Amino acid sequence: MMHAAASRRQNQERTRSSLLRAASKLFCHHGLDGASIDDVAEEAGYTKGAFYANFRNKEELFLVMLDEKFASELERLDHALAGADEPRDEARTAAADFIQFARGDLEWPRLYFQFVSYATRNDEFRQELATRQRAMRERLALIYGRWAAASDTAMPLPIEQITAMTYFMADGFLVGQLIEPGLPDELYATMVGVFVRGLEAMAEDPATKASQA
Fold first, then answer.
1. Mean pLDDT for each consecutive 10-residue tract of the chain (213 residues)?
2. How many Cβ atoms from other residues are within 10 Å of residue 147's Cβ?
């Protein structure tokens, strides 16, 4: 009985993964509104019933895609920002790794901004996306806080604000690369390095110290 249950779980996981891969491909080429549930099921080699056995609707499938990608990014950052090197160098390395991570799945940046565009037309989905973005930033803030403590880096602004700034810097850079694919990956690492230097300068500024006293 246990072997049969394990086999069913494995089959369900394979079906789910196939549906997610098919959806990613179709949504990138046809948009979220341009690919139907029937299209996704057919592309994956399953019936519509298989789709509904795994997801209530397309919106739930979108959110599963986001959750999986966000979880992978948090795991990567947790290892990248260990506080073992100089803060500036470690931040630049983490930024360069982020671009490589994002570009490792060529469909992901286009897919993510399909989600953003869809959220502007569907308020319920927008709220779900906003909830996930806030949760992502909260987890990032914990990682940044631990990194700052490990590397003895002073934070001249609330960690939540710093987290939001770096989060939206990454979004903006990926948009820029979608529009201008020739933008060099190194530019983002340089941006983050300049940002960290600015934070360090703020932390040493007498006015900042006085305001935090």
1. 62 89 87 88 92 90 84 72 62 72 74 86 89 84 78 81 88 88 88 86 70 55
2. 21
